[in-house]
Amino acid sequence: MSEETTHAPDEPSDTLRDDSARDDFIRDKVRADLASSRVEHVVTRFPPEPNGYLHIGHAKAIVLSFEVAREFGGVCRLRFDDTNPETEDIEYVEAIERDVRWLGYTWDGPTRFASDYFEQLAEWGEKLIRDGKAYVDRSSEDEIRAGRGSITEPGTPSPDRDLSVDDNLELFRQMRAGEMPDGAAVLRAKIDMAAANMLMRDPLLFRIRHAHHYRRGDAWCIYPMYDYAHCLEDAIEGVTHSFCTLEFENNREIYDWLIEAVEIEPPRPEQTEFARLSLGFTVMSKRKLLQLVTDQHVAGWDDPRMPTISGLRRRGVTPEAIRRFAEDVGVAKRNNVIDIARFEHAIRDDLNHRAPRRLAVLDPIEIELENWPGDHVEQLEADDWPRDVPKDGTRAVPFGRRLLVEREDFAEDPPEGWHRLALGREVRLRYAYVVECTEVVRDTAGRVTTLRCRVDLKSRGGKTADGRSVPGTIHWVSADHSVPLEARLYDRLFRVEQPDATGGDFLQHLNPESLVVHTDARAEPSLAGAAPGTRVQLERLGYFVVDQDSAGDPLVMNRTVTLRDTWAKVAQTADAREAAARAQRRAEEKKAYKEAQRRQSEAGDDGVTLSADEERIAARYRDALGLAEHDATLLARHAERAEFFDAAHGICSDAHAVARWAINELRGAAGDRPLSELPFEGAALGRLVALVEDGAITAAAGKEVLAAMVAGEGTPEGIVDARNLRRIDDAGALEPTIDAVLAANAGQVAAYRGGKTALFGFFIGQVMQQTGGTADPQMVRRLLTERLDAD
What we know:
Layout: H1 25-35, E1 43-46, H2 56-71, E2 75-80, H3 90-102, E3 112-113, H4 118-130, E4 134-137, H5 141-147, H6 165-176, E5 186-189, E6 204-208, E7 222-224, H7 226-236, E8 241-245, H8 252-261, E9 270-274, E10 278-279, H9 286-294, H10 309-315, H11 319-329, E11 337-338, H12 340-351, E12 357-358, E13 360-361, E14 364-369, E15 378-383, E16 394-399, E17 402-406, E18 426-429, E19 434-442, E20 448-456, E21 473-474, E22 477-478, E23 483-490, E24 515-523, E25 535-538, E26 542-546, E27 555-561, H13 574-602, H14 612-623, H15 629-637, H16 639-649, H17 655-670, H18 682-693, H19 699-710, H20 716-722, H21 731-744, H22 746-753, H23 760-770, H24 777-788
Parallel strand pairs: 1-2, 2-3, 8-9, 10-11, 12-25, 14-20, 18-21, 23-27
Antiparallel strand pairs: 4-5, 5-6, 6-7, 13-24, 14-17, 15-16, 17-22, 18-19, 19-20, 23-24, 25-26, 26-27
Helix pairs in contact: 2-11, 7-8, 11-12, 13-17, 14-15, 16-17, 16-18, 17-18, 17-19, 18-19, 21-23, 21-24, 23-24
């Protein structure tokens, strides 16, 4: 079959937002630097350590560095910070280069290495000694650590701090010549042992390591520390903007001090920090990823369950989807964990337009059509693309007497609302006919082996001649013409959103069902011989890719992502989303204002005069955040509530939404309890509000979660997962409930179709009740409209 499997182009702008739409504090800084002539030509860099494979967090840094350089007519360089010979390997260098290219980027000039600059870095070390800004310390590691002091206590100077320049130069040259064992001495900067920033208390610059370097061999036995090497490598390469994650914010003072101390000429590189990308239900620590590999919890760095770029590539994720996700997440100044559902949405959105539809059955059970004419085989026409994808194409799928369907699509004792196969019931076969199950055949152990069915020979294409309604549709393949398939169903590697958040053994949270393999699956014959890297959507099953090791018999396919999409709202256009948000905000503010007035009156808050400090707080809420006068006043008047609001707003940026929950919902859920006695803090409230505002859960579900939080049942994310409250906006997941509601209210359905359209609200309410308020109302409305107006 024909399927594009090529790599991304070097210029990926076609998959990202227009440059004019990008606006964040990093790009603002670059614009200001160019406008002020601090720099004339933008140079960025991506500086990985070659001690592991790149992961999705690195992808954000890659996209940021390369895209900023491209947008401003500059260049981005690739440099390996290979200053730790004990953990680095050429394997990682080659893998990182391969991943960066696969993501669609080409770096400026040759690949650069910190190890190329060892001579220059050592010379600068001697310069610092000569200038009285560095010294050799022969204290032990424990003594150096103890001598740093604490946040409240200054450090203690090393006995070697006041050695002469000549003595220090001699000792440093002995270190470099290999005349000292590991740990015998270090080179330290001489700054300030009482500095408020403890990193500035004479930081280490060089240490001794008698280890073989993968590039320099045994030529060196002293290696620069990251804080020393990083900034000076940037200076050597002419980097103008050094982007790094927030954990290096305090290190910026060392960065600037060293640039000044070695007298780098302008334009000097400047460091800017941004929030790293942390993804739920996985880990990003290279050490922990390596442990997963070495302990064989996964099959390697490219295991499709890993968050590594190579793992995502093997899973079938495209570079365009990763780049789009990195851009959509944006650049922030505050760390947070991104819901993995958001990443999955980006993957689905990308694959929807590039993965043609195909049929396969994972756990087959045979159907025998009793009234099908002999060995006759029909070639039915099946669409390659759904109606919402602007592409054309069909293919022929063979249909005969013996078919295979999913075992889970048959029920011997069907529950209420069941619209798939059952004894004596009809179901529609996708692209084919309507069939009715007439007999169930079992083996000697009682296991169902075959379903004998009758086919309505006048229902080709799924439409019945007499117009009767057949609500259910299932997929199938020909038993005689399908090809063998090994289907590997990959799921989240961990069972909890933040497996390493508690500080315990993160491995205890591994998901035992992160990989389920169906070795007896079957696929339609058009997939025979599909090349590795071929991507398709197997209808009702998910998006799949042919694995790199597939030899074709059986075909081996990895599931990239399921079809369920809990982030459909994210896919709205920015204009439509903002317009809807404004309208909703106005309505909710009006309602909240009236409710707050009533509660304020009940609490005796009428006519309160704010103090000067409270008025300043209220003014900030009004002027900076745009809150309504009443909300700003009410928050400022109650210090506990304001503190809760501030902490929550630090997590969720929608001030209006946070204010609504802090003023109305929180007060109602807490009752008479002081907020200080609640079993959670404001940040947890912010995470809850973010879940509602981002569309992960409905407002009704949010209120249920808040009540559970007040009762001490745990975090908002944990409660949502435990109670299965995530918003249901997947048509396939909602259809059975909607069908059950309509079947249970046949009289109302007839009345609606007879002209009583006001009953539409009744049906919505019933579906929402059946789903515990988790169904997306818009999706419910659309599906109900389709069914109620169908006949």
